[in-house]
Amino acid sequence: SVCPQECCVQNAAREYAKLYAAEAETLEGFGEVPEIIPIFLIHRPANNIPYATVEEELVGEFVKYSVRDGKEVNFLRRDSEAGQKCCTFQHWVYEKTSGNLLVTDLQGVGMKLTDVGIATLAKGYKGFKGNCSFSFIEQFRALHQCNEYCEMLGLKSLRPPHQKQRKAAATKSKNLPNSSAVKKMVPKKGREHRDFISSEH
């Protein structure tokens, strides 16, 4: 049944959010921490639908802060404090569980979140059934961009190490005597190529 599973997922995610808050609140300058509101299961044996969920009503603009799939890029994730802190929460859970679990579908009003999901890498991670595909974890790893709150918590970047090597190679090339001449050429070539394309159409 959907209702008990929904409660189980949200309340498990809520426990992670409490641990995240406890760690983040000790950091100077972190400020308010997102909270996943509790969801309660009510059993109504006499009713056609024997189970219902009850939670606090959130009043205000309801926003989705986290990636559900690669196509959904929400600017409020990047531009709002709540959005950034939600992304940091995802990164924090990912790191704490060694990449085995991700809290997904972070959405709500301001810092109060509800209707969240959980994706696990393996079925039954810590005896827990997630309700989202593990592909969400891969997407998160590919799309997450660390922000100042990730840095405050000392979370490790999820960017593959070969990008860092490329940066190192670029700094070496600065020492070459004619690297500046090469650099000047590149944008020019790029521009000619673009003109060529536009004249084709």
From TrEMBL:
SMART domains: Alpha_kinase. One of its GO terms (molecular function) is ATP binding. Gene3D superfamilies: MHCK/EF2 kinase (3.20.200.10). Its EC number is 2.7.11.1. GO terms for cellular component: basolateral plasma membrane. Keywords: Cell membrane, Disulfide bond, Immunoglobulin domain, Kinase, Membrane, Repeat, Serine/threonine-protein kinase, Transferase. It comes from the Eukaryota. Residues 172-181 have a biased composition (Polar residues). Pfam families: Alpha_kinase. Residues 1-158 form the Alpha-type protein kinase domain. The keyword Cell membrane applies. Residues 161-201 are annotated as: Disordered. Protein kinase that recognizes phosphorylation sites in which the surrounding peptides have an alpha-helical conformation. Regulates cardiac development and cardiomyocyte differentiation by negatively regulating Wnt/beta-catenin signaling. Belongs to the protein kinase superfamily. Alpha-type protein kinase family. ALPK subfamily. This is Alpha-protein kinase 2. The gene is Alpk2.
